[in-house]
Structures are given as C-alpha cells and as structure tokens.
Amino acid sequence: xxxxxxxxxxxxxxxxxxxxxxxxxxxxxGYHATGIxxxxxxxxxxxGTIYRYFKNKLDIFLTLYESLNAEFLAVAWGTRxxxxxxxxxxxxxxxxxxxxxSQIFLREINRIRIFFEEVYADPEIRKSFEAAQAEFxxxxxxxxxxxxxxxxxxPELHIPSTARLMNAMVFDTMRAGxxxxxxxxxILLLATTLIDLFARGAMPQLK
Length: 207
Prior knowledge:
Tetracycline Repressor, domain 2; 2 domains; 207 residues; mainly alpha; Arc Repressor Mutant, subunit A
C-alpha cells in the first residue's frame, strides 16, 4: 500500500518538532555527545524520520543557529539611523535596537548559550559564526557611516575599527548574559552602558 502523501504543512510541523527536540538534547548533552539516535528516541521516531528532514546532526545544529541569527540580523538591518534628524533621535535608534535585540536574546537565551558553548565544536559551526560576525560588522559600519554623514559621529573616527570594537563589546555582553549567575535585566543594563560609552566617546560632545 502506498504511503499517504504528507502535506507541506505537515512536513513543516515535523521539521519544527525535530528542531525543538534536538535543541533540548543539545542543551542536555552538548553537541559532541548528542547523536541522531538521541534525537530520534526523544522524538519517539525512527532514525529515518530524522534523515528525511536533515542530512545529519550538523545540519540540525546549523539550522537552529542560522534561524536565530536571521532574527538578529533582521533587527540590525532594520535600524533606521537615516531617519534621525537630531543627536537624540540617533541615540534613540540605538536604544530601540538594544531593546529589540534584548527581547530576542531573553526569549532564546538557552539556544544562545548552546551556540556560545559549541562554537568550536565543528569547523562548519565556526565558519557560520564568523560569517554572522562579518554581516553584523557590515550593519554596524552602515549605522556609523550614516551617523557620520549626519554629523552625529566624530569625523576623524576610523569607522571599520570603531564598528569592530562595538561589535566585540556586543558579543561579549551576549556571552556574559548567558552565564547562569547573570540576572536577565543585566543584558539591558550592559547595552545601556555601551550606548553611554558610545555617546561620550564616538559622538561630538555638546558645548
């Protein structure tokens, strides 16, 4: 008897179920100790079910990472410093970015913790992480370049270097925020501190 045809919606539901279970297993056992058998067992499905949707464990892990990364990048590219007409409005754009970024961070903190822990677990994971860093650098360079064109950023600053330093602080803030002893509110406090440092050091001082 022919197997009943599975709809695109059913396939998507099953795919999301696999990702949800895989995330739980990765969180408990780590990337290296997790096998397809562990994911299939938790899902109460056969190995073949997993392989119908993903090539291997790495494919599952990268799918989890890249979907989250896409959310963060959507926020970063969605900032509108071009609409700022005053210094205060430019800073307000930064604040909105931090709030939107933090909301995703706090919602997905367990997934982010796993990614930071496993970034060196496989060369492909590291490669994906580095690609994300490069794109985030582009978004920050864009933000600073527009700010300089509008007179909100000091003209003598080397934009690529400033962007790299800012991103390093953002990534370190995220890493610190995943530590068990960190209060969830600390991520916003750290972000606000970063904005204050930027306003005092990278923007022309008001007289």
